[in-house]
Specification:
This protein is of the alpha/beta class. Helix content is 28%, strand content 24%. α7 crosses α8.
């Protein structure tokens, strides 16, 4: 069962504001120029018929200070088969961001680190101690995240959101506004989006990834759509654990601003 994130008050807020590379409320930052590319590597559906569909999610982000692999899918064989079909320069990846410690988002990590250990693995601090020990044993660096944090120019993570399942999302600044990439949205995609809007003063051009609405009623999905629009989310690309019925409602609700996602889908924003 998901819980609301705790409200930070008093000395803790002051301490966070004094830390380097941490968001401050309502930050009005310039939007970096240049194209940003989002390549979906792993998903329940395949936008490219040459790629395999499987339950899980992974996405590559190129065009900012770091090249980021966000989540790693479920099955290493599917993960690598899709990467090879996409023919991407994997040696350029220097940061791996994990949304939460579930197998459909971490399943390809260890085989990736076997081949490319010279990366920083960015994960919520609430991941198990065994996870971080294994990252170090693989020769990679670990970065444990609690608060909203800058990873580099134009790249952020939301920090830990949620209660029973703690999760973080990736936020990328683009010339058209922010792009929020979610793993499963266990804490709720509205809650995640609201946190982004409270902490950085830029429009959200696109939110895509898992929205965790597989068992939600139509009324609940309509409520989520309404709240995302109120938060100024211009486009949406729900996939993975969103559920086919909910995805259809998003397609109807967002019409021409709905973005189809699937393995092999490449989104270029400039």
């Amino acid at each position: 069962m998901c819980q609301s994130r705790p409200t930070l008050r008093g000395p803790l807020v002051l301490a966070l504001l004094l830390l380097p590379a941490v968001w401050t409320p309502a930050r009005a930052a310039p939007q970096p120029g240049g194209e940003v590319t989002f390549t979906v590597v792993y998903d329940n559906t395949a936008a490219n018929p040459d790629l395999q569909a499987d339950w899980g999610f992974a996405c590559l982000v190129n065009g900012r200070e770091h090249n980021v692999l966000f989540d790693t899918g479920t099955k290493p064989d599917v993960f690598w088969a899709n990467l090879e079909k996409l023919d991407l320069p994997l040696g350029d990846i220097d940061v791996v961001v994990l949304s939460h410690e579930h197998g459909d988002h971490t399943g390809g990590l260890w085989s990736f680190l076997d081949r490319y250990p010279d990366v920083t693995v960015v994960a919520p601090a609430g991941f198990s101690p065994e996870f971080f020990e294994r990252v170090k044993a693989a020769g990679a660096r670990d970065r444990r995240i609690e608060a909203p944090t800058a990873l580099g120019d134009g790249l952020w993570v939301t920090g830990a959101v949620g209660g029973d399942v703690v999760e973080q999302s990736l936020v990328v600044e683009t010339p058209k506004g922010l792009v929020v990439v979610t793993g499963c949205s266990h804490p709720g995609v509205v809650e995640i989006t609201r946190k982004v809007r409270e902490t950085i003063d830029q429009p959200i051009h696109l939110a895509f990834g898992g929205f965790h609405l597989l068992r939600a009623s139509p009324e609940d999905v309509h409520d989520v759509i309404r709240k995302l629009k109120e938060l100024g989310v211009e486009r949406v690309g729900p996939t993975h654990c969103t559920g086919e019925d909910a995805i259809r409602l998003f397609r109807d609700g967002y019409a021409s601003r709905f973005v189809t996602v699937g393995a092999g889908r490449v989104l270029r924003i400039e």
